[in-house]
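#lab-general

N.A. 3:47 PM
ok so I finally got the sequence cleaned up, no stray characters, all 376 residues accounted for. can someone with queue access submit it? mine expired

B.Y. 3:52 PM
send it over

N.A. 3:53 PM
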Amino acid sequence: MNSSLIDFFQSYQNKLKIKQIEKTHEHQIKKSMQLCPMKPLTKGQEADIKAYFMKHLGREVPTYWHQYLYSRNGVYSVKYIPASVYTSSIVFRLNNYHFSLAYVDKGFYDTLFPDVNRPKTFVKNVNGFYYDDKSSISKEEAISRCMNLKDAVIKPAVLGTWGEGVKLFHTDNGFIPEMNMTVADLFAHYNKSFIVQSKLEQHPDLANLNPTSVNTIRVMSYRRENEVIILYAVIRIGRKGKVVDNETAGGIKADIDLQTGRIKGPAFGSPTEPNMPQTDSGAVLDKYLIPSFPQVLDFVKDLHLRLPYFKLIGWDISVDTSGKPVLIEWNRKAELSQVAHGPAFGDYTEEILAAAMKEENTMVGSLNRKNRPFKG
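B.Y. 4:20 PM
back already:
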């Protein structure tokens, strides 16, 4: 088979992959639109959205993404990024998908960020092999190190868990009362690729938002040359009694003013819930000061420069009781917080779209053996 025919079939397969990605996202957003009142867009607004993306992306996009976000937060903008477009045509042009599969494994954080403030690791399992924070150990040694833990957290180490499987527990001579099982049983349940860490004692001002969950600051950063731009930051807050702050566990989000470090306005939860001026614990959100916020942003800028294969990163950062930022995790395909914040890329939207269009889409692969960028 000659190279031009190979290129044709590769191009066709790539376009099918992209269509499938976008179809999946469109199905999800249409379900969300049925759960809350929708505000109509004017014909002029729809025309402006189509013209904007035709100019900067080379094609039109469905306008119902913009309608949904406008209906949720009351802010209209042509610069909203549809999740389908973000996944199919932006994030894996700016981030190398192939590298991400290993880099985001929490089992490698000790290697990638050895000097970074993180929760203490007791043991970790990487692809079936056990380690402490430095060395390979046996399964028996891993179990032994977890025989008597006061406050510990176990979580899957691989990507795409969205807070699922995160469990808080303590052990008494190898038995876990909360789960009615032994440490050996727990390890067997998680099978492989998990991590056991100390429970983070977060800053009192974060704990005040919800004491049962580690409440994190989601920071979206964009690398251009040797400069890291902070696109936005939102606070993620868990619900009463929950251990995690993820949206899939009912968590809520509120925007943070990058200049003042204070929360702006209410928090947003699921499409079925009204906007929330305060948390379940009663903390009033508007103008609430996030502790050590300037240090958090500097922390993110330093960490981003350590990951040269990724230009667009979502960081989950907490703050400990001493006021130091703590790395919880980084995301190579962070969901965009546009309900809480507004247009994700803001003033950098045109620049980011232009940068993405110059790169190959690493999720679907090269169009041909000359490694030309995909122009779909």
